[in-house]
Amino acid sequence: MFTRRTALLGAAFAATAPVLLGRGIAAASESMTPVGLPADLSTLTRRKVELVRPPFVHEHEQVAGTGPQIIEFTMTIREQKMVIDEEGTTIQAMTFDGSVPGPLMVVHQDDYVELTLINPESNSMPHNIDFHAATGALGGGALTLINPGEQTTLRFRATRPGTFVYHCAPGGPMIPWHVVSGMNGAIMILPRDGLKNEKGEPIRYDKVVYVGEQDYYIPRDEDGNYKEYDSPGDGYSDMLEVMNGLIPTHEVFNGAVGALTGDNAMTSKVGETVLIVHSQANRDTRPHLIGGHGDYVWETGKFNNPPEKDNETWFIRGGSAGAAMYTFLQPGVYAYVNHNLIEAVSLGATAHFKVEGDWNNDLMEQVSAPGPIPRG
């Protein structure tokens, strides 16, 4: 049914990207009004969770202490200019809660995720959210398409344990544009009895961090300098041309070059077990911890599958999230990289862990320091 709201959505697309008039309307046509018997959730308790900025993750229990609950989250869509490298290059980012990636949500299998999504009047475009963890209605995308000045609440049952991507999917070419402008994140659905190793034995982590890998496609002017725009829509046509070349200008962790290095490095200590959740909403990637390993790796991010062990590098498919667990054994700085080393070194896909503790010479020892080659 074509409604006034559908017309508004179509008009918003037309105003933002005139070249897409006709194709952009697909976003509005994908929206729907669900018809079905209401679910009776009156016996379930509700718990409100405040989301936090990655790489940090909100407090949660690794093993569910109760039966299924309704977990309430709120996210606000923020369109904002972001600096993404040391040269001051900017992007008119589209974000969930103001960060790239959006916050990691953590629930348990069979919990109900209830998200209130807010699109402030100050924004310029319609937005929605597609949960790869959800069932039906384009992952919720068809039920959550909202204009500036609107909000909506979506609830879905977390039926499958694992790590999953969520992203904006407003329709047509707008989908990749919103995703590579920063509008993606992840949700982790833990088994109710916690994580297990390949033998089915319980394993735990001391800390969880969230690394979201982001590819950007920033247009250049005739002199080769990166362009800057006053609003997301102003740069759409130029950015689409770069995107269609399939070669990113930047490949970064958590929104910008250096976002997880130097003073922003993640921290740990010898003997601490860290679970690293890594998502890439658009391109394949190959995480690697230099000087460490993946003790347990859920490469596809799905906890019903037994983890692989002792990986040097693992593979995260575009449009998915994976998880790796490692116990740090030596102090120092560990580089966590996309092991396409061109993307790590030249385009920015590098993070650091700063690990405190005592050195173990049994694991590694400098037998002799660098010095002149002996003569004779």
From TrEMBL:
Keyword Repeat carried by entry: yes
Signal peptide: 1-28
Cofactor: Cu(+); Cu(2+); FAD
Residue positions binding Cu cation: H127, H132, H167, C168, H178, M183, H339
InterPro entries attached to this UniProt entry: Cu-oxidase-like_N (IPR011707), Cu-oxidase_2nd (IPR001117), Cupredoxin (IPR008972), NO2-reductase_Cu (IPR001287), TAT_signal (IPR006311)
Substrates-to-products reaction catalysed: nitric oxide + Fe(III)-[cytochrome c] + H2O = Fe(II)-[cytochrome c] + nitrite + 2 H(+)
NCBIfam families reported for this sequence: Cu_nitrite_red
Protein name: Copper-containing nitrite reductase
Species assigned in the record: Hoeflea marina
